[in-house]
What does this fold into?
Amino acid sequence: MSEIDYKDPGYYTNRELSWVLFDKRVLSEAKDKQNPLFERLKFLSITASNLDEFFMVRVASLKDMVNAGYEKPDIAGMTPRQQLSALNEATHELVKEQYAVYNRTLLPLLLQNGLRVIGKHEKLTEKEAEYVDQYYEENVYPVLTPMAVDSSRPFPLIRNKSLNIGALVKKKGGDGELEFATVQVPSVLPRIVQIPSEDEGETAVILLEEVIERNIEKLFLNYDIVCSYPFRIMRNADFSLEEDEAEDLLKEIEKQLKMRQWGQAIRLEVEEGIDKRLIGIIKKELSIGDEDIYRIDGPLDLTFLMKMYGLPGFDHLKEKGYASPQPVPELPEGCDIFEQIRKGDVLLHHPYETFTPVVDFIRQAARDKDVLAIKQTLYRVSGNSPIIAALAQAAENGKQVSVLVELKARFDEENNIVWAKMLEKAGCHVIYGLVGLKTHSKITLVVRREEDGIRRYVHLGTGNYNDATAKLYTDIGLLTCSESIGEDATAVFNMLSGYSEPLGWNKLSLAPLWLKDRFLYLIDREKKNAAAGREGHIIAKVNSLCDKDIIQALYEAGAAGVKIELIVRGICCLKTGLPGIGKNITVRSIVGNFLEHCRIFYFANDGKPEYYCASADWMPRNLERRVEIMFPVEKPALREKLIHILSMQMKDTVKAHVLLPNGRYQKVDKRGKEIINAQQEFCKEAVRAAKQKDEVVSNRVFIPETHHE
It folds into this structure.
């Protein structure tokens, strides 16, 4: 072990390049013939929205580093400039793959299945063209704002992520001098325009930009249109706050949000074949280099495919089976949730089990005359959040309500500002996060007066208090009235609101205080057990793994003989098959219909296994720059549920990709193995459990008379 230096950069994968591999795994689902056609459209759309966010944040951050002259290499030994160079090649290749899937595979399949996507307005039939022109006159023309550029009118602000049509025009009867003009494709109108098809049984659609481009001369009546092409830009959306100097964090973030529209242009998408003169003007005005220009063979911004997924009449081309999240057997509808929690801890597995009990937990607390206080952290919530409404009602009912609203939750800042102001108006005590830290933990504390004194009820989770994403993300939640966890929960909120840290903690581990050290201790304990000839075994399910200290500890444990099974959805900077470790460390990634989001940890502990769930990934930002919580799961029945989740995902032969020693991922080889789709199995199990509970309840309905006799 001592001969191998696991700090060597060669033992690590660059974080950003690992992310590109993750988006390629999502793209592989768009390629997979086993997936229904419209599910493939959805996966392709997700790759596009993923890439947008990646550019706005990660690529933007690297560009900032380069501009600032920052040369420190990352854990893989790459400087920011080297990372940008490698990413430039990788992302251009990824975009080519996206459009190859769209053009060569999905479009022909859509046509075969009765959906004709008219890529170019020139391909419209005479009747279709007549309809499109009328649609333009009645619905589109009144909304458009054409922008000319000349000596009196400067180049307009091109908004981040907006789709635009750029044109070269010249005055009719003039000297032939070319001028630049642009019009934004309005986001307030549907991008997919359905048009009457001449073939019965066929649905025909055209994109809004094609409708505008076909009629663009009507916007510039005194000009001849020389050429027109769509273009789209991505701007730097990563902002940094001088929090110590910001007197009012709320106002400072509101100001920064407006600045996002003005951020540096970092990516320009144009249609392949665009006129050289036109792109020259755009490139110059946006100060963008050739390496950041993406020439697209198809429609820009494939996120429109998510809207296409919603077109009526194509349900037979979508995933069937799981209609909705199932009831939680331990928490039947209409039950007294506090009474049920007193009977024993309840583990929730979303989205297979419904998120409703979490909402009901807060709703019941808001109405319960014995509840004295509700305290909660909010990172991301839905647009019409029932939890926010319940908290506001609780404050109006005279409860002490304290809510930490994390204003720095990226791309949810605006939403959270609205909620924070609303909660304050309702009488809640609102805390706007902590200086220098994001509060990413998911915790709710309800303080209730009962016959035997004050009792504290706690919900801890791996996912956000967002009832919408709880139907799409896999997460774990724990409802408990454990006295020791209740004490810790009180301490957490006292820290968040008043900076008072207790002398000791019972069960919870917190970042950035000592959670990382706790993980390192647990890994080291397995290493020592293995070195002493005892069993050493770790199973960890996380979204991302890129903390160097954690990876090095895993390498050393693997070299000592610990069996380490990692389920990492996204970024993974750890490598497999290294000298001295071999097959002791395995990594798999599951990309399915639900977004894998829960963090679960198992440590064998020499026959006395320990199970934990957490809000934190194994990333430096989670362990060192965020408020995160890890909580133990101690009840035997709940532990069985967790190990079942982990085991099922380790057996997945349908959606699992395995990390190879060469750094690539490949789907599990199904030959000779049972076909298991873990997500589908969890769906079936949730339905069976709910059905069994219904049968028990319905059986009881027939015997109450006899029972009373």
